């Protein structure tokens, strides 16, 4: 009797998920020798002191499992930062959890609170992990578009989407991909809208330290009515230019954190020990995150000035490290085809905004990432000037 070598068939849980546009564009950029302004990651090094702090932690023998919730020095540093910046006091022991990046934080929050049949509202265009996370939890995705053109929240549409089955709403500010930042007035409207409901908030704030032109980041932590129902997610990778370290955190009231930690314990258990100790000690100096808005605004301004040499219509970039442009005056191609053409023929990779919509809504807008060295940006701008 021979042993069967047949792999049993499985039914995919995510039938709509294939190769992401980010993977496609990065591969094409590498193949064509294009400047990759598509995927959102820096091409410059982090502070050498941070690398040294990791080395020091390893040398000191801090290489075994840390507490499931994160090392105390880091949780305490996060709680102190949030209180200093946003005026809300979180208990480091029971309300701050260190995660393996923000993407893990978001799926863990979703899995902790969403049950089969629950509805979760997402505001499109949105980061590509939200929808699969909800589907993996057995939830129903309810898509509400941000206002085309301005990408401001439409509270009438959000209100109309709320139902007795709504379990959570995911918001993101500063916003990927549009680079808009929610205002104080918009956060107050959100607080008022959710006040009579039991809807939870998942507030994706990974670009919290990249807000420009004198604006301030309106964290959900600033608003008591939102903080009481929110999982607030942030990313050390974004803040300290170490996206590959995959370390982030969630701040949430103790009852929400307790449920979050039940899932966290069994999907990652815990997070890289020496890196946690290093970031915890590094955060004793607030200057790196306080100086980040000016650091990225310089890059934004350089990039926007260079884009004036093109026929792109330059859209506002209020926060994050992204810049969107309208391509209507440059090409008749749709967004996705234009990005393929731009990468192959001009030598600069961008991402179509249609990739961030479930229905592929095309409004002739593409996104660039300016988290790059000045030399990289200038090379890209010289190539884009051909347009």
Structural description of this entry:
The chain has 387 residues and is an alpha/beta fold. It folds into 2 domains: 21-41 and 291-384, Aspartate Aminotransferase, domain 1; 48-286, Aspartate Aminotransferase, domain 2. The chain is 40% helix and 14% strand. The chain is built from 16 helices and 13 strands. The mean pLDDT is 97.
Layout of secondary structure:
Blueprint lengths: L20 H12 L2 E2 L11 H12 L12 H15 L5 H4 E4 L1 H13 L5 E6 L5 H7 L3 E6 L9 H7 L4 E7 L11 H11 L5 E5 L19 H4 L2 E6 H4 L8 E4 L2 H14 L5 H10 L4 H4 L1 H16 L5 E2 L7 E5 L8 H12 L1 E2 L1 E2 L12 E5 L4 H11 L3
Parallel strand pairs: 1-11, 3-4, 3-5, 5-6, 6-7
Antiparallel strand pairs: 2-8, 7-8, 9-10, 10-13, 12-13
Helix pairs in contact: 1-15, 2-12, 3-12, 5-6, 5-11, 14-16
List keywords for this structure.
alpha/beta; Aspartate Aminotransferase, domain 2; four-stranded antiparallel β-sheet; 387 residues; 2 domains; seven-stranded mixed β-sheet; globular; Aspartate Aminotransferase, domain 1; 40% helix
Query: pLDDT below 50 for ≥5 consecutive residues: which ranges?
Result: none
CATH topology of the largest domain: Aspartate Aminotransferase, domain 2
Structural class: alpha/beta
Strand segment tally: 13
What is the string of helix and strand elements?
A: HEHHHEHEHEHEHEHEHEHHHHEEHEEEH
Second rung of CATH, namely the architecture of the largest domain: 3-Layer(aba) Sandwich
In short:
The protein has helices spanning 21-32, 48-59, 72-86, 92-95, 101-113, 130-136, 155-161, 184-194, 224-227, 236-239, 254-267, 273-282, 287-290, 292-307, 335-346, 374-384, and strands at residues 35-36, 96-99, 119-124, 140-145, 166-172, 200-204, 230-235, 248-251, 313-314, 322-326, 348-349, 351-352, 365-369. The chain is of the alpha/beta class and 387 residues long.
